[in-house]
Here is the input.
Amino acid sequence: MEPHGEILIVEDDAGIRQALRDLLLEEGFRVLEAQDGAEALAIVARMSNPPCVVLLDLMMPRMTGWEVLRAWEADGSVDSHRVCIISAYSDRAPPTVHRVFRKPLDVRRLLETVQALC
Here is the structure.
């Protein structure tokens, strides 16, 4: 199967990150992973084009998802990132976020959204 696009998973829980990676790989996506916001910013900074979707947890050590969004707003790149929040703690998100997925995740809905955005 030809890859559909590149997804960046930003999630501090290794089990959730691995499950998402396996699911997306099975669906034909290329997957990048970051365990916190600082690592995500470093990965995106090295890319010539942003990933087609960023699955962003909000509550992480070192640098939260909220801080990642603020960094992208500050450097003017927030509109070039298709961000979907994955969080157990929040349904609210700034208008630059495409969708919020509550944990536990509705996998079917997540895949439909990612496929539509990519």
